[in-house]
Amino acid sequence: MDPKLLDILVCPLCKSPLVYQKAAQELICKADRLAYKIADDIPVMLVDEARKLSAEEIEKIR
Ligand SMILES: [Zn+2]
Known about the structure:
5-stranded antiparallel β-sheet
């Protein structure tokens, strides 16, 4: 994914910066514990489509 795009992307819910998980192809909002998927290099910034993360998963992300 384009790093410049990552710089301008924020969580649509809380407007926090997101953490890019390259292997999983997801953008993580730690505050909301949500993972926004990236489909064909295009981040799907929809709260309804986001995956909820467990506390355990969140702990592994930095
Ligand atoms: Zn958020």
